[in-house]
Amino acid sequence: MPAPSVHGTYFDGQSARAHPVSLVLEDSLEITGRDLRLAWSLPDLVAGDTARPLMRVGPTGSAARVEFTDEGLAEALKERCPGLYRTDPSASGGRLRLVLWSIAAGISVIGLAVYGVPAIAVRLAPVIPAAMEARIGGAVDGQIGRLLGDPPLCDDASARAVLDRLIQRMTANGDLSVDPAVTIRRHGIANALTLPGGRVVVLSELIDKSDTPDEFAGVLAHEFGHVAAHDPMRALLAASGSSFLLSLVLGDLTGSTIIVAVGQAAISAGYSREAENAADAYSVEVMRRSGGDATALATILRRIAKDDAKDEFASLLRSHPYTAERADRIAEMAGTETVGRRILDEAEWATLKGICRNLPAKSVK
Ligand SMILES: [Zn+2]
Question: How far is the CA of 222 from the centre of ligand 1 (A)?
Answer without folding.
Answer: 6
